[in-house]
């Protein structure tokens, strides 16, 4: 029987001089690139301008990175944000918070939908978010797997047979621990397939906000419980009854419940004859 996994994968794929390509960066980029191919397919199936996915990609990249960086410093290192605000936009870009990324993405999609919410394309905020959460779930799986390749965001000590020993993590090495990154990565991957299946069944008849609600409840509901298996990220969390990740997950889950309930109380608007015509990409 497997006792534990010795994890000593090199986080760097290769380097040329001082420039290095790491698994985390590759997986982060793949999440966006594959995700936008899926969004192009969704736009084509629902007769939206496929060319709009290029603009959507820009909004997603900027809002994700800015939101995740600001969220990390605001939630975990506010003193750095206060005294050294330029750290947010300067290398090495260490520290990304998923709760901050969520806020950033929702803000970016709201700005995007304001430009696209016309009778011709009808890309409302909830229409866009219901589709984008499909690819965000896939990106989340890639990013959390990248955390595993980096041997970071590790779990607490455990004796389960699938425990990992993170040999490249000097702080937590040589003790079998929960592979919390893998738990979250697999959870995101399962959610990706659930949301893709759900959309494929109903497409334009998707209740507005339903998939966003499912996403928020699934991701942050599980995140709340996974935090019990993870080491705290910063020392001040040790004195809290709930850590920062759990505290921030509660309003996210409640917001998900709101959107899910609202989606089934609000009829899906039927397309007008003008909206139902194919749009040239």
TrEMBL record:
Its main location: membrane. Pfam families: LGT (PF01790). GO terms for cellular component: plasma membrane. PANTHER family: PHOSPHATIDYLGLYCEROL--PROLIPOPROTEIN DIACYLGLYCERYL TRANSFERASE (PTHR30589:SF0), PROLIPOPROTEIN DIACYLGLYCERYL TRANSFERASE (PTHR30589). It is a multi-pass membrane protein. This is Phosphatidylglycerol--prolipoprotein diacylglyceryl transferase. Its EC number is 2.5.1.145. The gene is lgt. It is found in: Cell membrane. It comes from Spirosoma radiotolerans. The chain crosses the membrane at residues 23-43, 55-76, 88-112, 124-146, 180-199, 211-229, 241-261.
């Amino acid at each position: 029987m497997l006792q534990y996994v010795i994890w000593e994968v090199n986080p760097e794929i290769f380097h040329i001089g001082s420039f290095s390509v790491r698994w985390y960066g590759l997986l982060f980029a793949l999440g966006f690139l594959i995700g936008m191919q899926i969004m192009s397919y969704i736009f084509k199936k629902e007769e939206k301008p496929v060319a709009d996915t290029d603009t959507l990609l820009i909004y997603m990249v900027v809002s994700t990175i800015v939101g995740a960086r600001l969220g990390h410093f605001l939630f975990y290192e506010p003193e750095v944000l206060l005294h050294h605000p330029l750290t947010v936009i300067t290398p090495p870009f260490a520290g990304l918070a998923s709760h901050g990324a969520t806020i950033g993405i929702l803000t970016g999609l709201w700005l995007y939908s304001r430009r696209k919410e016309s009778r011709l394309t009808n890309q409302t905020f909830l229409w866009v978010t219901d589709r984008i959460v499909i690819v965000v779930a896939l990106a989340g799986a890639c990013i959390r797997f990248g955390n595993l390749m980096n041997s970071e965001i590790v779990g607490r000590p455990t004796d389960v047979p699938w425990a990992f020993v993170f040999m490249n993590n000097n702080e937590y090495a040589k003790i079998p621990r929960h592979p919390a990154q893998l738990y979250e990565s697999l959870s995101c991957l399962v959610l990706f397939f659930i949301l893709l299946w759900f959309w494929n069944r109903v497409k334009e008849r998707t209740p507005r906000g339903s998939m966003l609600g499912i996403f928020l409840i699934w991701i942050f509901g599980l995140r709340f419980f996974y935090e019990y298996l993870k080491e705290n990220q910063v020392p001040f969390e040790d004195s809290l009854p709930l850590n920062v990740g759990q505290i921030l997950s509660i309003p996210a889950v409640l917001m998900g419940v709101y959107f899910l309930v609202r989606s089934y109380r609000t009829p899906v608007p039927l397309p007008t004859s003008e909206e139902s015509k194919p749009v040239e990409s």
